[in-house]
Amino acid sequence: MFDRAPVAAGILAACAKRRVKPLTDSSPVLRNVRQRTPTAFTPGPVMRLKHVGGALGIASLTLLSAFQAAREPEDEFAGIVSAFLDLNFDTGWEGLEKLPGITWAALPPTDLKNCLPDGGCYTRQGALAIGGRSLTVVATGARTIVSSIYFRNPSTPLSEAAVVAALKKATLGAELVRCPASNGAGGTDWYSLMGPKVNPGHLAIQTRCKGKACEGFVLTRGEKLPPLQPSQLALYSEQCTAGAERKVVSTSKPHELLAGTIKSLLPPATGPAPYDWKVMVALSSGIAWNPDGPRPGNLNYKGDPGPLLQTGQVTLAGREFSVIASGTSTQVRTIYFEEMSMHPKGEHMLGVLYEKGLTVKLVRCGPVYTESTHNWYSATSSATRPVMILQSIRYDGNQAQDSYALRVDGTLPARDPRDRNPGTGGC
């Protein structure tokens, strides 16, 4: 089984915990693999050719057998990668049936109670017989789309070098884009894949699990490099060319960096509050603001009258946020941060603000929901003007998704009748 290193991200272990039935030697899937895979003692289709006559028939049989024997397991694996990324591949769960060599459990896919770290909420198990090896396979994705396939090889390794060479031979590029940092603690390499007849994707190859040799693969579709878990940011580098220093992706976690971004947007005690649009854009927040500036927009769904807004985005240690600032023609009133994915729950961004010298105090709790919280906090310091921060967290099992509203004018919005004061109603 994969360890907690990044290639598997706990997927196979998580499947087991969520009671996804594993494939065993007696399961129909693996039994079918053995029955359908030709061996030296089980004649395949080539061996059932009729006798053509004399040396010609024997020669034909010998040539065909030699051709089959010449196909190395790493080439077969590269064929699976090519098929999954093919421009015409059906990304639905039934499309998995067309991947060569893999036998899959019956549909429908398993609907997980808690989504996995890669965002997949559905899984389908399979088995791959390749080069005398039996690999466990798990596909993950959404209700109708497969996004990733995980392979675990408990037997003789295919070897990273052989697989990469086979990918290049199959014109898939295989450029190393993420690797263990110079401290050597990581055990996985990520390769970007692209070619004239395939969609872009990535293949992660894990060769070390908790310091011991192992082998696993994660195949994903898409141009973006799959994000690291927060605990992995200091183990890996995205500077992997020959001779590169291999600096870590980040020594800080995303929520720590977000706290720094929010602090940079606080109006100084000696300056105007709230500030104008030009001042906001000039602040060293790291946000890439839309160069078109503020434009008329509608944020009524947030209870925000606007009437102007300016969009932006920021990426913090691989975690992406969309940003919207709203206000009048002369003042920025509120800045919104919306996380674009989910992360392991348990982070405390407001606690980091406290560590940075701000006094953070709960001032209002939103309506009671079973899977989310919406609470307002005041944030004050001697160096900045008072602001209000709405923290909204949506939970899905062990995953969470954050959003924030920073009211730089220091006011609270109109009260919802369901809102609660601190110390009452569980607030």
Describe it.
- The protein is of the alpha+beta class and 427 residues long.
- Helices cover 19% and strands 33% of the residues.
- It has 8 helices and 20 strands.
- The protein has helices at 11-17, 28-36, 54-70, 73-85, 160-169, 254-264, 277-282, 349-355; strands at residues 102-104, 110-111, 122-130, 133-141, 146-152, 173-180, 188-195, 198-209, 212-221, 236-237, 288-289, 295-296, 308-316, 319-327, 332-339, 343-344, 359-365, 372-381, 384-396, 399-407.
- Strands 1, 2, 3, 4, 5, 6, 7, 8, 9 and 10 form a 10-stranded antiparallel beta sheet that branches.
- α6 (254-264) packs across α8.
- Mean pLDDT is 86; it is low at 1-7 and 16-69.
Approximately how much beta-strand content do the residues carry? 25-35%
What is the distance, rounded to the nearest whole angstrom, between the alpha carbons of the first and last residues?
42 Å
Shape field: elongated
Rg from C-alpha positions?
27 Å
Q: Share of helix among residues?
A: 10-25%
Q: What is the string of helix and strand elements?
A: HHHHEEEEEHEEEEEHHEEEEEEHEEEE
Round the mean pLDDT to the nearest integer and report it: 86
Structural class: alpha+beta
Number of helices: 8
Low-confidence parts, pLDDT < 50 over ≥5 residues?
1-7, 16-69
Biggest sheet: strands, sense, closure?
10 strands, antiparallel
Classify the oligomer: single chain
Query: How many beta strands in the DSSP annotation?
Result: 20
